[in-house]
Amino acid sequence: ATEKETYEFQTEVSRLMKIIINSLYKTREIFLRELISNASDAIDKIRFLSLTDPNALSANPNLNITVKADPTNRILIIRDSGIGMTKKHLKENLGTIAKSGTSEFLDAMEKGKADMSLIGQFGVGFYSVFLVADRVVVASKHNDDKQYIWESTAVNDFSIAEDPRGNTLGRGTEIQLYLKEDGLEYLDEKRLQNLIKKYSEFINFPIYLSVHRTEVVEVDDEEDDKPADTEDKPADTEDKPADTEDKPADTEDKPADTEDRPADTEDESAKKTEESEDDGDLEVEDVTEKTESKPKKKTKEILVEEWEQMNTQKPIWTRDPKNVTDKEYEEFYYSLVKNEGSPPLSWIHFKAEGEVDFRSIVYIPKKAPADMFKKVQDYSRNIKLFVKRVFITDEFLDFVPKYLQFIRAIIDADDIPLNVSRETLQQHKTLQLIKRRLIKKILELIANLSRDEEKYAILMKEFGTNLKLGAIEDNRNRKKVAKLLRFPTSAENVNVTSLDDYIGRSKKGQESIYFVTCTTIEECEQSPFLERLLARGYEVLYMNEPIDEILVQHMPAYEGKVFRNIAKGDLTFGDETEDTKKEKELLKEKFSVLVDELKSTLSEYVDQVDVSNRLTVSPCAVIAHEYGWTGNMHRIMSAQAY
Ligand code: ADP
Ligand code: MG
């Protein structure tokens, strides 16, 4: 074996680790969620590779995760048969290359915007092991390398060495946590059972926990103390998951068949016998009175170790929506979004049939991320694509248009070829059909939500801008999206209005949808342009968002009614009479001297000075040319200039 090499943690990582190891954070149990999630990701990866490379799984065809406590040595061992890590991966992924999330997480923690439980979202979940352990040993075997051991006691450095035991894993990763004094509770079987059940419910691979139970066996006087250990091979037991028959790799639910997997080898059985005896194996005389005439037999209690599967549910999206509770949908959402702070605002669970078959659950989050429009790149991860329950990818850049990228979804399709590259996959016809159906469903979901005023207000606050972007960009669905928009309005007792409702209230013969732009609603209300319209009994929409003006440029009309900016050009209402026209002529004459004076003084700044009938109380207003930018638009454009 090669020499042990020592590396320093990248500075930020080291800072993070110090915080973690000294953390008094209460719910340290999240480390287990992070490890299970990493194990599951790793198995997803190897399974994905196996779709195009038939040999990818041969070193270890069983895809599963095992957890085992070793109380004697105070170690908790988590093992997976995932893709594993090469020496280079170990060095880079677990210490020397800081992800952008490292400093983001540190910042967020310092500012009190994040707590420890959000660590997974920042892509540094692995380090949470140091919440409970002060020494961590990771053995990993990747198909392209030998088995290596990464080891660290946190803080400054870690070491990597070839594993002196050779290849014991076949393929995958084994993580040994040497628990801190105050972390010993994680050796407790019941505690582990509860935690793993909680965190593994939506993991698509079997997770086994090594559990012990006592069993009373009869012993022949002459017979030796062979334990009844035949039941501890999970693959042979009846708790085989119900949903595996349709999984592509049908061998995957056997926890272990490599040499030193705890349950499967003779060595282990032997060790177990020892352990059983160590643990106070009781030898008792039969105490139960038997009515039968059988001769009395000697019995003894033995401790049996077996692998018990912790997750037995079918994937939630394959279940009938009628039988899934809200709580389950919420829990699934958390598993999907790596424990984002708040529960989802709404969701839809559906099965599409016809030109394309797939199942899907789509969620609308309750909060938009702070940097929604900046970090479009990250959004790819919000949609997870499965094919026949096999995870394929969440690395789509444009599965849904940008404006809908706030949704979280899982899609499980039937007729997508598996043996193609991701690139080819993205172009695939079926995927295009799925996209279209999905968008339709998302818009339906939002439309349904609009009946719940309270929730819709949240949606508008968080994602209203997205919908406006949709009305701008999505030519195919513009009309549908426009129906979902809401605007503050001058109408009495109306908080926000849809365009349909505006039209419903409009005056007879009204051909336009009037709006005023501004930065706040108060500013809209005080706009001098408003007076005339309100006086005439027209309703005016308040467009107080920068995107609004761009919206009306792209959507100049709705249901045949033209959007009219009341701060622009010459406003006519269609109800002017000859009298008003005459009156205007008279006023023009009366003020001609003033107008000429203003024209020459302001020639540098304005195009035109005119007498108008658009104002009632205010003496004058600066307005934009019909085809020019309003003051508001100037603000938007100069804000975007850098
Ligand atoms: P994330 O899972 O968000 O990438 P983590 O800090 O949890 O961040 O893990 C860091 C990286 O370490 C992973 O991206 C992966 O490359 C690697 N890794 C961690 N655990 C495993 C594992 N069990 N098998 C293979 N690779 C792993
Ligand atoms: Mg992780």
From TrEMBL:
This is 6251_t:CDS:1. The keyword Nucleotide-binding applies. Residues 227-274 have a biased composition (Basic and acidic residues). It comes from the Eukaryota. GO terms for molecular function: ATP binding; ATP hydrolysis activity; ATP-dependent protein folding chaperone; unfolded protein binding. Coiled coil: none annotated. Residues 218-299 are annotated as: Disordered. ATP binds at residues 34, 38, 80, 85, 93, 99-101, 121-126, 173, 422. It comes from Paraglomus occultum. Residues 27-183 form the Histidine kinase/HSP90-like ATPase domain. Belongs to the heat shock protein 90 family. Residues 275-286 have a biased composition (Acidic residues). Keywords: ATP-binding, Chaperone, Nucleotide-binding, Signal. The keyword Nuclease does not apply.
